[in-house]
Every structure is written in structure tokens, then in C-alpha cells.
Amino acid sequence: MTEKDLIKQLKELKTVKPRKDWVLLTKRQILPEEKSASAFPIFQWKLAFVPVISVMTIIGLFGFADNTVPGDFLFPVKKATENAQVGLSTISEKSGVHLRLANRRLEELSAIAEDNKVRSLAPTIKEFQDNINEAVNGLSSTGSADLKDLVAEAQKLEENKQKVESVLGVQIGGETDKLEKQLAGYLIADLEKRTLQEEDQKLLTEAKEYFEQGAYTLALEKLWFLSNQ
User: Which of 23, 42, 70, 143 could potentially form a cystine with 123 if both were Cys, beta carbons 3.0 to 4.6 Å apart?
Assistant: First the structure.
């Protein structure tokens, strides 16, 4: 075949039109793909809700975890939240955070006693003791303004501890005496540096007498009143 003949045949192909039945068959084969393509935006719309659903699930998880006690399946989630609170607090605030967590453990112990969850007693008492120890360790780094705020929390702690021990019929330990002793000692030392009025000086003297007798709870009561004058 010469080059001239090839060019002639190519020109004839341009005039060829497909049969109507072939066009219809081809269209039917293409339509399912078009339908799938039209469904793609719906698929994208559903994907857009995946992060929202995940966030809602996490929020619900934390909501359930907030009502758990040590020993429960979801308590580690609650513990992680508490650890984050401690981590985000300043050095001066850490004792206060641990003290509030210790009070939370006492509230949980009350609920455990009411619900008779015996298996949760030991881990909750241990968590309470750990929080008290951490609070004691952080007292030396606590500023004088934060020390005053700790007095009310320490008084609440003592009241809750006595209630829990009376219900359980056992001593739950924890260095609460050491906490009250150090807290009272730091406050007395801070107040001795100040110039006090006669009535305030009398309260400080009474607090020091209780402190020397080992009655740290009573000493803190005087110091709390004096700090909030």
C-alpha cells in the first residue's frame, strides 16, 4: 500500500458514523459509573462527620469515666485527666491540686462504702495516700498566698477522713498529721515575719501553743481565722 492509498483510507474513516444500537449499549455500560460518581459527594459528606462522631465519643467516654472509682475499668481515663491537671499546675499550686484530689478520693470512699464495692476499697485508699504524700512533698514550694488557701482544704480533708473512718471502722492512713504539721509550721513562720495587731498576735500565740502540743488541727483553725482577717 502506497502512502497515497493510506491517506485516502484515513479520510474515508472520518465519514464513518457508529451504529445507533452500539451507541445505546455503550451508554448503558457507562451509566453505572456515572451513578457511582454521583454518590461520591454523599460518601464525602459521611466522612466529614467521622471527626465529629469521634469527638462526641471521647466526650461521652470522659463523662462516664468521671463517675468511676479506683478499680473500675474506665478509672485510668479519669486518672489521666487528673494527671493532666497536676501537670498543668504551677509548682506553687501542685500541693493544692493533690489535696483536692485526696478529698475526691475520700468522697469516692464514702460512695464505695454505700454501694458495698469492697474490691475498690484498697486501690482508692492507696490513691488517697499517694495524693496526701504528694501534697506534703510540695508544701516547701508553695507560696504564702497559696498556703492560706490550703488551710480550708486541709480542714475539709480532716472532716471527710473522720467520716470515712467512722463508716469503714478502720484507719485509712495517709500522712495527714504530717501535712497539718508542716502547713501550720509554714504559716506560723510566715505570720511571725509580719507586724500584727494585738488581737491578731493573740491568735498567733494560741496557734503556736496548739502547735507545740501537737494539736495541729486546732492550730490550723486559729491560723485560718487569722489569715482571713
Answer: 70
* CA atoms of 80 and 77, how far apart (whole Å): 5
Rg of the chain over all Cα atoms, to the nearest angstrom: 37
- Block residue for cell numbers 485527666: 81
Report the candidate in 68, 70, 62 with the shortest Cα–Cα distance to residue 129. 70
Q: Encode pLDDT of 146-187 as tens digits.
A: 888 898 899 899 899 999 999 888 888 878 899 999 999 999
Q: Kindly provide the b/e burial profile for residues 66-80, where b requires at least 16 CB atoms within 10 angstroms of the residue's own CB.
A: eebbbbbeebebbee
Q: Give the other-Cβ count within 10 Å of 32's Cβ.
A: 9
Determine phi and psi for 172, rounding to 5 degrees: -95, 0
- State the number of CA atoms in the 13 A half-sphere of 163 facing the CB: 16
From residue 156, how far is each of 78, 109, 112, 126, 142 by CA, in Å? 22, 15, 19, 19, 19
The pTM score is 0.69
pLDDT at 112 over 60: yes
Q: Give the Cα-Cα-Cα angle 103, 168, 71 (nearest 5 degrees).
A: 60
Would you kindly state where each structural domain of the chain is located, as residue ranges? 91-227
CA distance 127 to 132: 9
